[in-house]
Structure formats: structure tokens, C-alpha cells
Amino acid sequence: MTGYIFRRILQAIPVFMGTTFLIYFMVFAMPGDPIVALFGDKTPNPAVVAQLRAQYHLDQPFIVQYLIYLGGIFRGDFGLSFSGEPVTAILARTFPVTARLAILALLFETFFGILVGLISGLRKGKLFDASSLAVSLVLISLPIFVIAFVGQYVFGVWLGWARTTVGSGAPLQDLILPALVLASVSFAQIVRLTRASVIETSGLDFVRTAYSKGLSSRRVIPVHILRNSLIPVVTYLATDFGVLLVGATITEGIFNVPGVGNTLYQAIIRGEGPTVVSFVTVMVLIYLVVNILVDLFYGLLDPRIRYVK
User: 96-257 has which fold?
Assistant: First the structure.
């Protein structure tokens, strides 16, 4: 196990280096001067421009800029935004909000998605199965901003059960509606994945053997059917959790959530190159860590998986 973890970390290093290089290249190596763009239509003082370019190392060759940035990452220094605020301070302010939103959404989609998918798979062809498939198809077909606006109107304006926007400090109760909206599409995907996997697993020999030995459904369904049906679901949840953690830009924007996605979008609009690069770098790190953890979790779900060369 230790050797496998070490190999996975070694494999993640070139992925991290390659993605950070591409991100930095796409932001800073393209035509145009981000410092001049900060001044808009005004003509900046050349001395001020030179000072800012030196401060952000933009007067250096591109490869030197990248190496300086990479060295800062290994020291835990993600640089300064163009407003002078450390990017780590921005992350420290926005990431906890997005983390709360992501965990809430993940709990909703995991619990309800697996539950509905399991019942649908066990009752294939029945009314519940047909209804769940129809609902999941509708949710997958609708754009997320449509679901968000409908949720705002129904639960916020019409019924008055929730606030239409997130308040100051992003309290947990204000994040429930955005989390439900964020979880809706993933819920539909998990229902369909779980259903298909349960149907396939239910027809395998070891399940029929378990029933033939006299084991009850209470034993066979959770231990033999559900556990062996969760591997594709866990794979999807891992990817989705990475997406949720790095911020759902549209949902955070509609509900005015002061999280990573909303902040990243504002940074792109303002041309905040250091903020964009640093935020995306953190996203890459999150994806890599989540994927390694999920690979390790597979062994708990399926005893046939062994981490050997």
C-alpha cells in the first residue's frame, strides 16, 4: 500500500508541472500587457507600469516568471493580486465558503441519489423506476441556471422557505438552496449510474449464490449488491467533488455566494492574472489529491482490488 501511494504521488508530479505550466502560459504568455489593461482607457505613467511589471516579475523572460511562480508555490506563496492582497488571503476567505457548499451538495446528491438509484434498480420496470428515470432525465436536460432561477422563485419568492441570495458570512442555512441546486444534476447522474450498476450486479452468480444459501435481502442487498455497485458511483462522486470544491461559477454567481467560483469569475473579468493562475493551481492540487484518495478507497469497496505492481 505504501509503495502504491508513493508511485501515485510520483505520477502526480508531472501532471501538476504540466498543468501549471499550461495555465501560466495561457494567462501570461499571450499577447497584451495585463498591467496596462488595469488602467483601462487611461494612459498610465510609464514609471508606474515599470514598477508594477517588476513587482510581478513580468519584466523577466516567460520561463523565469514561471520558475519564480513555481518556487513560490513550494514555499506556500501564491503571490499578490493586482489589488495588492495576498492570493492566499483571498483563498482563505473564499475556500471555506465553497467547501461548505460542496460538502452540503455532495451529501444531498450522495444520499438521495444512491437511495433512489438502489430502489429503482431493485424495482426495475415498476412505477417508481419509470418516475425516477423521467425526473433524472429532466434534471440532466435542464441547464443549471434554469434550475437555479426556478429554485429561487419557488422556494425563495413563492414559498418563502429560503433566501434568494446568500447573506453576509454565508451562513449554513443560506447555503441549503444553492447546494440543492448544485446537487440536482449530479443527483440525476448518480441515480442512473446506481440503477444500472444495481441491475447488472443483481444478475451476477455470487448474488444468486447468496440467495440460494438462504441469506435474507437485508443481508444481500447492502453487502453483496450495493457495495459492489458503488465503484462507478464513487468514481463519479470523486470527480464531482473536485468540481464542487473548485467552485461552481454559475450557481455561486446566481446566489451571490462569496466562494471560489464567483471570485475566480470576477478575477477573469478584471484580468487578475496572478489570482486566476493561483486559483486554478489550487484546483489542480485538489483534483490530484481527490483522485489518489479515491483510488485507495476502491480497495475498501471491492476486495478483489489489490495494490501491487
Answer: MetI-like fold (1.10.3720)
